[in-house]
Each structure stands twice: as structure tokens, then as C-alpha cells.
Design goal:
With about 240 residues, the protein is mostly helical. The protein contains 10 helices and no strands. Helix 2 packs parallel to helix 7. The longest helix is centred in the N-terminal third of the chain and has 47 residues, at about 55-100. The protein is elongated. The termini are far apart.
Length: about 240
Amino acid sequence: MATDNRARADAHGHDGGHHHRDVSGGWLRPAVFGAMDGLVTNVSLIAGVHGGGGSSHTIVLTGLAGLAAGAFSMAAGEFVSVSSQNELIAAEVDKERLELEHNAVAEQAELAGMLRARGVSPATARQAAAEISAHPEKALAVHALEELGINPGDLPSPLVAAGASLASFAVGALIPLIPYLGGLDVLGFALGLAAVAAVVGGGLVARLTARPFWRGALRQLLLGAGAAGITYLVGLLVHVI
């Protein structure tokens, strides 16, 4: 976790050197997921309605409805998900706080054991555990990091996650709608715009994770094309029947 990396850097007094991106899921994950989901969802809806013989007006109505419903659904889901995760973490941290208050000796011994497991000598581990345990909040933070893998003071914001998801989904969903909003009833144009957005979005995500641009771009393009193609066939089948 980025929090863990920052904690280690602070412990060693590093103000410079290399830095890590925030991978704790504050806004980047819902933003990326929202944009790609919005793009794939709406291009699939447009393809399906077009395959079913829908008019330009029907496609615009469907696309805008899909944009609004999807964006708010994604935002609500992210808000509930992150809130629930934070509440679960808070409950576990409260348990740890009670243990530190009522079983201080055992918790100090447990901390010394965790330090020894990381390669610290027994004498140094006992001394470090005693010094850390003398400060309750610091002790709680260290126990939470070691036992739960989290920093209680650095949890993702539900509002930030929801806002990032809503905005990015709306942007992704709007892209294949642009031709129809401009009065151009051409499915190929919408699919072309969506393909370009999928390539750019997938490639940028790949670069963020230090993978080749083409790999992320191709993966996203194939996934989007598959979803749109299947939905188009469904619409076409319904139209024929």
C-alpha cells in the first residue's frame, strides 16, 4: 500500500528519492472503472437499439437514460462500498484499541513478536515495542498497519470515490452519443469514437501500471467490441423476431 510505503519512508527520514503512486483506491480506481464502464455500457446500448431498428431519437433517449442511470448507480455503489469498508475497518480498529487498553502487556509482547518476524533482533524488538506502546495512538497505528494492513488515518473518502465514479462514467458514456447528439445517425461513427476512447483509455491505464500501452489498449478494445457486438446481435434478433 502507498500508506505503508509512506510510513516506511518517514521512519527512515526520506523526504526525497523515489515516490509511489497512491494505489489505496481513493479516486483513481473508481475513475478508471467508471470511465471504461460508461463507455462500454453506452456503446453497447446504442449498438443494441440500432440493431433493433430504433430511431435516432430513441437512441439518444436510451443513451442519455443509460448515462444518467449508470452514473448515479455507480456513484451510489461506490459510496456504499467505500463507506461499508471504512466502517468495517473502524470496527476492527476499535477492537484493537480495546485490546491495547485492557491487555497492554500481551499486546506489547505481540508487537515485539511481529518485529522479530520482520528480522529485528529480540532485544531491539522488545525495546522498540516498549517505546511504541508508551504512546497509545502510535501503538494503535502500528498494530493496525501490522495486523490489518491499513492506516486508520488514511482511509479513502466515500464522497471522493462516488464523485470520481459519477463524473468518469458520464464522460465515458457521452462519447458514443456525440454523433447522435449532433444529428448524425451513423452507428459506425459512434463505434469509431468509442474504439478510439477505448484504445486511449486502456493504453493510459496500462502506462500507469508500467505495462505496454498496446496491451492495455488492445484488451480494452476487444472487451468493448465484444460487448457491443453481442448487444447488437441481441437487438438484431429482437428486430427480426
